[in-house]
Amino acid sequence: MTTTNYDVIIVGAGAAGLAAARVLQRHGKKVAIVEASSSIGGRAKTIEAWGHNCDLGAHWLHYGTRNVFLHYANALSDSNYELIQLNDDYMPFDVENVNLHSDSRVSILNQDASNFKQRLRHVENIFAGDVGFRAAGNYFSTNSQHRLLSQFYVNSVLHGYEPDLQSAKDEWDDSIGLVIGNFDMGKEWSRYSNSDYQSSPWNTEYNPDHVCKNGYGNLLKRSAIDLFDGTKVNPVKLIKQTVVKIIDVRNDQVKVITNKNEELQAESCIVTVSNGVHNSGPSSVSHIKIGGWTDRHTEIYQNVPMGHYGRVILNLGQDIFEIGEHKYAFIKINNNSNELQALTDGILFITNVFGSNIVYADVGGMLAENLVDKNIPLLENKIIQKIQVSIKKMTGKDISLNKNNIISTGWSKNPFTLGSFASANPKTDDREHLFSDEFSVINDRIFFAGEAHHKTDWATVSGAHQSGCKTAQELLEKIFRITALKDNCYTNRHLANEYDKPNDCKYLNDSI
Ligand SMILES: Cc1cc2nc3c(=O)[nH]c(=O)nc-3n(C[C@H](O)[C@H](O)[C@H](O)COP(=O)(O)OP(=O)(O)OC[C@H]3O[C@@H](n4cnc5c(N)ncnc54)[C@H](O)[C@@H]3O)c2cc1C
Q: Between 105-127 and 163-183, two packed helices, what is the crossing angle to 10 degrees?
């Protein structure tokens, strides 16, 4: 076994690992990233399909101006990376009340959408002042209402809220099914937690969602590619298609052993794998044995499990939905038929992505859990049938799906992610534990980062990025006694200040 020495070894080349590597590189540290898959980006991954860039994982740049990648894309001034701001137009299709073949279909749907929004406002008003939600009144966008509704639902069902809320709940069940069915984490309803939805909203009127023409995965890759540029000083070493199996601390050195039986040695290590990987058992190909890991770690991580959310990309060859580009459409799930099961089988359609005839069918819950990568055994597959039936109900059109016009991503079955993003079990403070000293570093040398480790922006690429920066800065201070530069990513305040003037931004200049 040969041994190679670094200052820091990073496990995982997703948004968190890449951000950590940049911070360490800028402080002159010799860094290696070990990545199990064949490319960088992790759960932010774009592929080219049918001549278009398709996001298999992360798609929305959440949190508007406080998202580092929004400023990065704008500063690139490259039309390929143009960002488009979304207006959050959600279109519910109510199969029971809409005559799909009538000429007045569009006006009925518009009416339905408008009724839906009004009812959202009604619940929003009930909530204003009741749970002390940070935003108020008109400033709720539809996306933040998802969280509000979920919280409302969970509180009323699980904790028996007051009668007026209960009646509002009854009135709202079908609409709630409409919105959270699609973003469902695949949990039993009793396992839902406010933490799953309650955080600061992804999308607000002041900080709206954007999408990138070239894809979020490509944007992340573009921002990181220079890290590995051998013509520059101190390039980061990328060790791809290599799985970390053991991390241990001996004689004040971290030893990392891979599936190829290589031993890497460093002063310190940052582990950025998903909570799914942390929670996988020893027989999983991605599982890492970490020296100093205790039963308490296992317990905490198991209470912050992965949610399930996946994407099926359909090349339909025609504008089936006829409601425009990048609109969101989903079937309204009615309260009367096996409601709870129905809720966990939501499908959200993103229509006509960037004006192509490509549609994203985003699935939540059990559908997402069962989704596998690419090779769907067509016709036998419940998910495909469900998508076909849903499209038929919504548009009246029969679509034929075969292996040439369909791609899927099974993040829940991917051994290196084992889910989509972190969620949290109810009645525990376990997300909070992840931020304590006890859980952010083991044996004083093994640090943790990743989307689950960001306090407010978890479940997002920008949260993962910030977590990676913050962990690397802490590591520099603890291990190398270096006061780390806190620019570019540490706090939202920093981001806002720094990126108001993109030309002055060192990080951007470094990257381009
Ligand atoms: C379908 C889907 C849709 C999403 N939509 C959005 C969205 O619209 N907007 C948004 O902001 N976020 C979205 N997210 C969440 C976002 O993608 C993640 O929060 C973020 O990319 C996580 O980054 P990370 O660095 O924490 O982890 P990851 O990206 O998972 O990186 C960890 C890396 O570690 C590697 N790894 C795992 N085990 C090992 C091992 N043993 N050895 C070596 N390497 C290993 C993995 O291959 C991976 O590359 C979505 C996620 C999914 C799945």
A: 130
CA distance 481 to 501: 30
User: What is the reported pLDDT for 327?
Assistant: 83
Q: Is the CB of 182 under 6 A from ligand 1?
A: no
C-alpha 62 to ligand 1 mean position (Å): 15
Nearest CA to 310 out of 360, 364, 348 is that of 364
Q: Which of 366, 444, 465 is nearest to 412 (CA)?
A: 366
Q: Are 359 and 320 in contact (CB under 8 A)?
A: yes
Distance 276 CA to ligand 1 centre (A): 10
Q: What is the pLDDT of residue 402?
A: 84
Please tell me the predicted confidence (pLDDT) of residue 161.
41
What pLDDT does 492 receive?
38
126 alpha carbon to ligand 1 midpoint, in Å?
36
Architecture of domain 3-43+215-305+422-511: 3-Layer(bba) Sandwich (3.50)
451 Cα nearest atom in ligand 1: 26
Q: Report whether residue 57 contacts ligand 1, using a CB cutoff of 6 Å.
A: yes
Question: Which stretches of the chain drop beneath a pLDDT of 70?
Answer: 1-2, 88-206, 332-345, 375-380, 425-430, 487-512
